[in-house]
UniProtKB/TrEMBL annotation:
This is 5-methyltetrahydropteroyltriglutamate--homocysteine S-methyltransferase. It catalyses: 5-methyltetrahydropteroyltri-L-glutamate + L-homocysteine = tetrahydropteroyltri-L-glutamate + L-methionine. Zn(2+) 1 binds at residues 647, 649, 671, 733. Binds 2 Zn(2+) ions per subunit. The lineage of its organism: Eukaryota, Viridiplantae, Streptophyta, Embryophyta, Tracheophyta.
Length: 765
């Protein structure tokens, strides 16, 4: 019985790739240094999978930014502004597309399906000249082969690539991206031909869009594309991999009828209904790659349940055609549990990170082949029993409070227009008020202080003093820049979710459970293992301290319940919405304590609300109902004069704009500039928005500093579709990843632009 891994984390157990990338970007190391770190990581990953007995080991899943950008490079689809003139695409062009440079902005970045991973969105049109411009897939296959490991090269499939792209600026919105298939398939043929020549016997094409609701012509595109590739694929075994959800019946029919394909991969963790499709009919002689080990969470597999599923599938597809697999790439989970030396032993026994999931996949494959490791299976059963019966998982008081939420929609008692009037009397803000999203740059010194305080190397008194000095610096800078509504900069926080999780019951924390979000950006998701409550105030001390330093409004900064949920590893023993309501009640307590502490503007970030939207439209309404309700629970008890902000970023929001309005926040700040101001099209199409809104005026994920003229131009575009009395001026997102040398001039230009337009509006009266 064979085993297969869809993909593996790239960052390394101690974030080696992150530090190598940042050193390269800062000019402290060479391209050769970066490539050596990358090659060492790849080598260790391949060896680990090989040593575990994995038969189908992936290659070309190791990206310096993301796999879609790698595909853009492979196809030579570089937007003209980056000055690419042909030949093999180097790191300079590659990273300019990802991050921008001093003269041109980056390409748009958005969420990868419903995960917290991001990808760089290809910009395509009829004029793009595709060419085979990156030989990375072939080079990595050869690299693994030289190490004695025969791998399965992985490519983003041609149809998914096009459907995950967007029409480039200036291209008619009605342009059919699938019309480019005849132009990109010749490049795919070149790559596949080279892989065959290099000795590859298997290839994996990821076509995850097949789990979406696709119209008939999009499904036909798969049929046409694979028919065109059939002769090139001849002589190769081909896996088409899907993940993240059930595959619809029509898509299943299309997929399993594709020409030239040897096997099909399905997510059987999030796609349990796919099992019924397989049992009802699976093409004879084809391989089934059964994704029974969860690639998106950190809980140990239920061996008994998985084995039962696999045995049932064995009867459908045949013993020699069933392959045990992960549900998706392990990119979305942490690297190795062995590095968690301080994690509570009982909770640790309930978990499996990527390295352990490789072992799980192989243990299940061996058990199916009659080589069951009885000791491993017994330990697995004992861990699952321990988790089910542990008293630390359940809190009756929390469950009763969450159950009592039923029967109310938890709306504030007055309209948003009445509240905005009350808030303006209290805050006395100018038109086009300026603010930032929350965080300010996290300096090396600041990180050192936090690290040493956690390690008990500095006293609490010295820690508070250091953080207070940092807050004062941030407050003084904002006053100097003449920003209207201030933030304290969040110097006490390493991560917006981790910070809150550390102070809530029901959460556990890892030391090295890092997961890549984009580029070099890694997050360390908390683990929600039990019922959630707030033992004591979490932010009131710092926010009140910051407010005492200024007469200007100071925002209290919180992370919302849906974002905490979506950016955590969530317990899988109760519905997600029940956990979310518990978190909402905890945040509600904090909001009310901030108000009592004199904070008149409170921001409850819901950056990940859109990210959690299910991939199938039939499931949208239920999710949006409980997600929006959770947000309203957090602030339903505050006074009209207390202004509630929320923030959202790096997703497509247009399709949920009515749910965003239903959140009933007083002000929303929302990513806009990096996505070519796509958000504004909603308002051009007639959607009325009566609350305050701040579409981002510049992209903080690029080191580029926009001019005041550029920002003013953006604000004027906003004023064409939004009333001046509701418009705010702010960056796209928080500033923690930037340097002060970038932040100060960018914010100065932002404030100057706001003042310029205020004066123009005043003189036009």
């Amino acid at each position: 019985m064979a085993s297969h891994i869809v993909g593996y984390p790239r960052m390394g157990p101690k974030r080696e790739l992150k530090f190598a990338l940042e050193s390269f970007w800062d000019g402290k190391s060479s391209a050769e240094d970066l490539q050596k770190v990358s090659a060492d990581l790849r080598s260790s990953i391949w060896k680990q999978m090989s040593d575990a007995g994995t038969k189908y080991i992936p290659s070309n899943t190791f990206a310096h930014y993301d796999q879609v950008l790698d595909t853009t490079a492979m196809l030579g689809a570089v937007p003209p502004r980056y000055g690419y003139t042909g030949g093999e695409i180097g790191l300079d062009v590659y990273f300019s597309m990802a991050r921008g440079n001093a003269s041109v902005p980056a390409m748009e970045m958005t969420k990868w399906f419903d995960t917290n991973y991001h990808y760089i969105v290809p910009e395509l049109g009829p004029e793009v000249n595709f060419s085979y411009a990156s030989h990375k897939a072939v080079n990595e296959y050869k690299e693994a082969k030289a190490l004695g490991v025969d791998t399965v090269p992985v490519l983003v499939g041609p149809v998914s690539y096009l459907l995950l792209s967007k029409a480039a600026k200036g291209v008619d919105k009605s342009f059919d991206l699938l019309s480019l298939l005849p132009k990109i398939l010749p490049v795919y043929k070149e790559v596949i031909t080279e892989l065959k020549a290099a000795g590859a016997t298997w290839i994996q094409l990821d076509e995850p869009v097949l789990v979406m609701d696709l119209e008939g012509h999009k499904l036909q595109a798969f049929t046409g594309a694979y028919a065109e590739l059939e002769s090139t694929l001849s002589g190769l075994n081909v896996i088409v991999e899907t993940y993240f959800a059930d595959i619809p019946a029509e898509a299943y029919k299309t997929l399993t009828s594709l020409k030239g394909v040897t096997g099909f991969g399905f997510d059987l963790v999030r796609g349990t209904k796919t099992l019924d499709l397989v049992k009802a009919g699976f093409p004879e002689g084809k391989y089934l790659f059964a994704g029974v080990v969860d690639g998106r969470n950190i809980w140990a597999n239920d061996f008994a349940a998985s084995l039962s599923t696999l045995e049932a599938l064995e009867g459908v597809v045949g013993k020699d055609k069933l392959v045990v697999s992960t549900s998706c790439s392990l990119l979305h989970t942490a690297v190795d549990l062995i590095n968690e030396t301080k994690l509570d032993a009982e909770i640790k026994s309930w978990m499996a990170f990527a390295a352990q999931k490789v072992i799980e996949v192989n243990a299940l494959a061996k058990a199916l082949a009659g080589q069951k490791d009885e000791a491993l299976f017994s330990a697995n059963a004992a861990a699952l029993a321990s988790r089910r019966s542990s008293p630390r998982v359940t809190n009756e008081g929390v469950q009763k409070a969450a159950a009592a939420l039923k029967g109310s929609d938890h709306r504030r008692s007055t309209t948003v227009s009445a509240r905005l009037d009350a808030q303006q009397k209290k805050l006395n803000l100018p038109i086009l008020p300026t603010t930032t999203i929350g965080s300010f740059p996290q300096t090396v010194e600041l990180r050192r202080v936090r690290r040493e305080y956690k390690a008990k190397k500095v006293s609490e008194e010295d820690y508070v003093k250091a953080i207070k000095e940092e807050i004062k610096k941030v407050v003084d800078l904002q006053e100097e820049l003449d920003i209207d509504v201030l933030v304290h900069g969040e110097p006490e926080r390493n991560d917006m979710v981790e910070y809150f999780g550390e102070q809530l019951s029901g959460f556990a924390f890892t030391a090295n459970g890092w997961v890549q979000s984009y580029g070099s950006r890694c997050v360390k998701p908390p683990v929600i293992y039990g019922d959630v409550s707030r033992p004591k105030a979490m932010t009131v001390f710092w926010s009140s301290m910051a407010q005492s330093m200024t007469s200007r409004p100071m925002k209290g900064m919180l992370t919302g319940p849906v974002t905490i949920l979506n950016w955590s590893f969530v317990r899988n023993d109760q519905p997600r919405h029940e956990t979310c309501y518990q978190i909402a009640l905890a945040i509600k307590d904090e909001v009310e304590d901030l108000e009592k502490g004199g904070i008149g503007v409170i921001q409850i970030d819901e950056a990940a609300l859109r990210e959690g939207l299910p991939l199938r439209k039939s499931e949208h309404a239920f999710y949006l109902d409980w997600a929006v309700h959770s947000f309203r629970i957090t602030n339903c008890g505050v006074q009209d004069s207390t202004q509630i902000h929320t923030h959202m970023c790096y997703s497509h929001f247009n399709d949920i704009i009515h749910s965003i309005i239903d959140m009933d926040a007083d002000v929303i700040t929302i990513e806009n500039s990096r996505s070519d101001e796509k958000l504004l099209s909603v308002f051009r199409e007639g959607v009325k928005y009566g609350a305050g809104i701040g579409p981002g005026v510049y992209d903080i994920h690029s080191p580029r500093i926009p001019s005041s003229e550029e920002i003013a131009d953006r604000v004027n575009k906003m004023l064409a579709v939004l009333e001046q009395n509701i418009l705010w001026v702010n960056p796209d997102c928080g500033l923690k990843t930037r340097k002060y040398t970038e932040v100060k001039p960018a914010l100065k230009n932002m404030v100057d632009a706001a003042k310029l337009i205020r004066s123009q509006l005043a003189s036009a009266k």
